[in-house]
Design a protein that fits this description.
Length: 108
């Protein structure tokens, strides 16, 4: 079982969509979080320690979590998906973009 953490800013559209897509996957446990103080679920060190893979939507998300959690991210690979904040929750184009990007890194 692989533990996958998806991160965006507010954990309302992009990362929550990614979590929803992979939530019922047979070989993946998926969670999501956000980097902003008003995030639905705010990223924390425990989540980062739990994760085998961390996917962030944009470069600034990676920079922010490395700055806030230097110990937890020291040996953690953080993958930038480069998915801009222009989609709503479960937008079909967002789903396709997430699946295409993530499938390169994890076996489905």
């Amino acid at each position: 079982m692989q533990n996958i953490l998806f991160i965006c800013s507010r954990n309302r559209w992009r990362s929550l969509t990614a979590e929803t897509i992979y939530k019922k996957h047979k070989t993946i446990q998926a969670k999501s979080a956000g980097t902003e103080s008003n995030a639905r679920i705010r990223v924390n060190g425990k989540q980062l320690s739990w994760a085998d893979h961390v996917f962030v939507m944009e470069k600034h998300h990676k920079e922010k979590i490395i700055q806030q959690f230097p110990n937890e991210t020291q040996s953690l690979e953080i993958i930038i998906l480069d998915i801009p904040d222009e989609y709503k929750y479960m937008d079909p184009d967002l789903i396709e973009e997430i699946q295409n990007s993530v499938s390169y890194y994890i076996s489905e």
